[in-house]
Amino acid sequence: MSSDTYRKSPVERWLIEPVNRFMSKSTTSGIILFASAILAIIIANSPFAERFHHFWEIKFSVGFNGSMISKSLHHWINDGLMAIFFFVVGLELKREIVAGKLSKAKDAIFPVVAALGGMIIPALIYFIFNSSGEAAKGWGIPMATDIAFALGILYLLGDKVPASLKVILTALAIVDDLGAVLVIAFFYTSEINYISLGVGAMSFMVLVAANRLGVRNTLFYGLVGIGGLWLAFLMSGIHATIAAVIAAMTIPMSVQTPKIEYIKKIEDLIARFRKMHTKGNLVVTESQFYLMEEINVSTRKALSPLQRLEHALHPFVAFIVLPIFALSNAGIELSADSFEHLNSTVFMGTFFGLLIGKFFGVFGTVYLLVRLKVINMPSDMNLSHVIGMGFLAAIGFTMSLFINGLAFDGALYAEQAKLAVLLASFVAGLTGFLIVKYSGSVRKT
After folding, report:
1. Domain extent at residue 322
2. What is the distance between the terminal CA atoms of the chain, rounded to a whole angstrom?
3. Measured between alpha carbons, how far is residue 438 from residues 36, 164, 388, 435 in Å?
């Protein structure tokens, strides 16, 4: 082995590379999210329960010159940290609508009708149990699908899952997220401060104008989006996470260098690099260094700001934002009194809304429209796959817990709904996993 051959250090071999392999797996984010929820439940039922709950109620204040925003750590997580999650959701929405699974009507109709059925039926079932009073406010809780959990379970099955099922479930969850965002915006908004809302509108127009003028600096969009749009929405009464979705829609999707031009450019740069003289494998010459920098710049120009942001933020959201959200929201005390929750209308509306409503909403809508020949079943899928998809869509978790926190002021209803979300998501995930796993032998319809 030559002296200039790079050797991996023990830290790289035994720590960095294993961690990178683990984090790069499609199932990892779902595993960590699930582990965080279990940990929250364990701590909430341990001798540290009281300290655990008090920790999330620690107050933090932000502001200057007498203008302060004071919220508990729990609220900062749900209003601030989760805004990053919703920003990534907004980026995914825009990418899919502009150039993805929702860009063509014929490709979008299947997941769109499945998502609509999966939102309407759960809400109706919830209303059957809770038609009036404070409890009726929770109708939005069983409408949501947790994309990380649902897709994580699919990826556990590997090659047993048809490619179309992964695509459709992803698109369904994205449409579902859009529905949840609209529900939050129109139905879970407090009294509106129109001055703050006006400031938010002006910030939005600045972002749109920047997009039209060709501004591609993501730092600019971050400063205006957070300092203007998000902060204004936070003070307006409209939930701040809506601002994150709106801001995401203003991020440029276009590239400076088209693919064909990029390929030619990179081929030319690599050809020039090969001709350059080098003294070893560890150190490049100054000319090679500048050429490599030019390759980096060219690559950056071939990627849209939206894709760069989505790629950069996804690990942070998957491995930090969502686990912290689960820790702060999934903790529920289990005791003899918990069995009383099982008889409550809020529990039954949420549990059956998610588990039964989602299944019949997704499967029933698709089955009906396939029979009526309005939509076509993908060639690599059968009705058994759609049944499994209906149950996987019933994994509400993140979005359901989030809406639960907005729906109820009282702890009793919130605890009842939280228990229902956790149980329904577990049953739905396990059922969906088993059905999809053994769907291969079912004859296609």
Report:
1. 13-189+239-254+304-437
2. 60
3. 29, 16, 10, 5
